[in-house]
């Protein structure tokens, strides 16, 4: 292609994009007779330090909490607001955590699934169906479905993502006071440059996942 030749830019489709119904899965299950549908999600799976936290939330049928979406798409102030609204609106909610030492012992996938299962077991209302963010299901007799990007396609899972994220972030802020050599209140245990610089200068804390490559290194 000569310097003067240019490919025509691809034109975007002018057709309206299909709008995601955040209650699509809940409505399908309600049509089949399921009433108490729990959304389940986790926070902290990819971190180098701190626990993995999972939450379960059962919302009233047909409830839409305006502004609620995947916790990663919300600013911290908005997440805190959504946390309060979910707690006020939910029929039941609960969370569970698995700490770093157990993550090292059983691996992060099994720790995540354990936290999810325990969060479901702690619900004060027993769900009769579970929607889980991701590809993996948990050990339970309750019917369940794993949904890729569940925090986008299920309002219940989005609610659980907010509970898990805010709960874990608050825990990490508390840990920062106990371990002042690490800015857990800033990076929350994720593998940021700040965190890696701190690891280069300090020994790992009991919060660090010693089996993770970047902590070993």
What share of the residues does DSSP label as strand, in percent?
A: 5-15%
Biggest sheet: strands side by side, in what order?
3-2-1-4-5
Characterize the biggest β-sheet. 5 strands, mixed
The percent of residues in helical segments reads 40-55%
How many β-strand runs?
Answer: 5
Number of helices: 9
Query: Given the helix and strand composition, which structural class is it?
Result: alpha/beta
**Low-confidence parts, pLDDT < 50 over ≥5 residues?**
12-16
Overall geometry: globular
Rg from alpha-carbon coordinates: 20 Å
Cα-to-Cα separation, first versus last residue: 47 Å
- Encode the helix/strand succession as letters: HEEHEHHEEHHHHH
Mean pLDDT: 92
Question: Tags for this entry?
Answer:
single chain, 217 residues, alpha/beta, 9 helices, 14% strand, globular
Task: Summarize, please.
The protein has 217 residues and is of the alpha/beta class. Helix content is 41%, strand content 14%.
Explain how this protein is built.
It is a single chain. By secondary structure, the chain is an alpha/beta fold. It is built from nine helices and five strands. A five-stranded mixed beta sheet has the order 3-2-1-4-5. Helix 2 packs across helix 6. It starts with 23 loop residues before the first helix and ends with a helix.
Write the layout of secondary structure elements.
Blueprint lengths: L23 H8 L5 E7 L8 E7 L17 H14 L2 E7 L1 H7 L1 H14 L7 E5 L10 E4 L2 H4 L1 H24 L5 H4 L5 H9 L11 H4 L1
